[in-house]
Amino acid sequence: MPIESGSCASARQAKQKRKSHSLSIRRTNSSEQERAGLQRDMLEGQDSKLPSAVRNTLLELFGQIEREFENLYIENLELRREIDTLNERLAGEGQTVDGAELSKGQLKTKASHSTSQLSQKLKTTYKASTSKIVSSFKTTTSRAICQLVKEYVGHRDGIWDVSVAKTQPVVLGTASADHTALLWSIETGKCLVKYVGHVGSASGDQTAHIWRYIVQLPTPQPTADCNQVSGEDEVEISDKDEPDGDGDGSSDCPTVRAPLTSLKSHQGVVIAADWLVGGKQAVTASWDRTANLYDVETSELVHSLTGHDQELTHCCTHPTQRLVVTSSRDTTFRLWDFRDPSIHSVNVFQGHTDTVTSAVFTVGDNVVSGSDDRTVKVWDLKNMRSPIATIRTDSAVNRINVCVGQRIIALPHDNRQVRLFDMSGVRLARLPRSNRQGHRRMVCCCAWCEDHPICNLFTCGFDRQAIGWNINIPALLQEK
After folding, report:
1. Which PROSITE patterns match (predicted)?
2. SS3 of 54, please?
3. Which whole-number Å values give the CA distances from 154 to 258, 372, 443, in the listed order?
4. Would 224 be classed as within a structural domain?
5. Nearest in space to 174 (alpha carbons), one of 399, 348, 381
6. Residue 83: what pLDDT?
């Protein structure tokens, strides 16, 4: 009977191992579809606030992730077996050589070279698979179209705040560190009037001014079509491309130099102001840690809202009810209720770990807060203990704004990005930045203008300009 050599026996054992392993792979693949179906059934049985289309897409993506990493795991096992076989073969060859013809150093070098080749193969396979997964995620979030329509250039310093008139005529307003406030024609980008009554940057003179001007809107001129850009496109730009504020469009516009009414009660910078429903009262927020409620007609202080431990950063009023929300560097925001004239209640929301840069009302009983802790949280006023949704980002969040009709949150960032999310925390788009468009420094504030046919979102920043955008969110992404 022929005797099987040692090398043949080793080869036969290795072949049997590979055969056994291939059978286990086939068994894994055969049950893969059944397992995916079981996971889908389990998830579908759970309550979810995600739209069905988005949820199905996520299920498919997570299934793909599992399959990709399972394949990587199997390939890793095979590569490890090949490495072990190679090391055993090299060790056997080292023993058959007489004397010191093959030293341990030579054997180690040869084995290391082979191992490095296999490791490189594993890294290449892993990168290719993960790149495929990441690409599939990107393609599902770039369906929103964001188009830059108009740039409003005229300030000589950074713009702190931007707002849109809630009554006719609809104009754009900006407040700057250059001590001025400007009103703009949204359609033409022309400055309509300049207010120069303050003696400090962004109400740094500790006052809030109410002033009046009859706006004469210019005739809109045809504008060149802008290229539609996906909400995920981005090209890095430098600060040298920043627009020159000296060649501004505000030098020839009318100027208002004195206020109609001056509200004076704060002992620090007035950082924000808003009108209460009805327009007879206004609220201001200050670095003196207080918010003040004023009677507009008499300029008298009605209430001083105290309780924050550090400087206030923002204040906002409810569109239909006598509610005020204030945010602060003390990591909290507070809800002040003036619906009952005899009782002025306050609720404190604690959910951030850094400065709360803004908190705004949305539809119903929801409030959205943004923070320097790089998160945005959606709250239900009926349950203050925990947020109903949390958005985590890669940069500090400045003054957010919510499109009430479409339930979209605009997030301006320190890193010059502006991102759009829905109320459940699903990312919809990112406004484009390139050498030709977008902000070149920190974006401070956003403001929606839902019904305007040309621009429905405005942003401003430290690059001394405001930008008007046309945002088109497909109905599929807004499905609830």
Report:
1. WD_REPEATS_1 (PS00678), WD_REPEATS_2 (PS50082), WD_REPEATS_REGION (PS50294)
2. helix
3. 20, 29, 17
4. no
5. 399
6. 85
* Angle, vertex CA 260, rays to CA 258 and CA 265, nearest 5: 95
Extract the runs of DSSP E, i.e. beta strands, from 237-342: 255-256, 261-263, 270-275, 281-286, 291-295, 301-305, 312-317, 323-328, 332-340
Look up the domain containing 277 and give its range: 145-213+252-477
Q: Is the pLDDT of residue 233 over 70?
A: no
d(CA 201, CA 74) in angstroms, rounded, equals 63
pTM over 0.70: no
Asked whether 429 and 469 are in contact (CB, 8 A), the reply is no
Strands 172-176 and 181-184: antiparallel
312's tokens: 């206030």
CATH number of the domain at 373, please: 2.130.10.10
Which residues, in sequence order, are CB contacts of 80 under 8 Å at separation 6+? none
Residue among 202, 84, 92 at smallest CA distance from 444:
202
Q: In what order do the strands lie in the sheet with 427-430?
A: 401-403, 408-412, 418-422, 427-430
How many C-alpha atoms does 172 have within 13 Å on its Cβ side?
Answer: 34
Return the bridge partners of 347, or none. Answer: 335
Quick: pLDDT tens for 365-409. Answer: 899 999 999 999 999 988 888 999 999 999 999 999 999 888 999
* Strand partners of residue 403: 408
Q: Which of 394, 19, 462, 22 is nearest to 239 (CA)?
A: 462
pLDDT score, position 134: 41
Query: Which tens digit of pLDDT belongs to each residue from 460-476?
Result: 999 999 999 999 887 54
pLDDT tens per residue across span 141-163: 446 789 999 999 999 999 999 99
Count of structural domains within the chain: 1
- The DSSP bridge pattern shows strands 255-256 and 191-195 to be parallel
Cα dihedral sign for 268, 272, 276, 282?
Answer: positive
188 or 436, which is more confident?
A: 188
Q: What are 157's two structure tokens?
A: 């310093």
The answer to whether position 278 is within a domain reads yes
pLDDT of 262: 94
155 lies in some domain: yes
Helix axes 104-140, 52-96, angle to 10 degrees: 170
185: pLDDT strictly greater than 90 = yes
Within-domain flag for 161 = yes
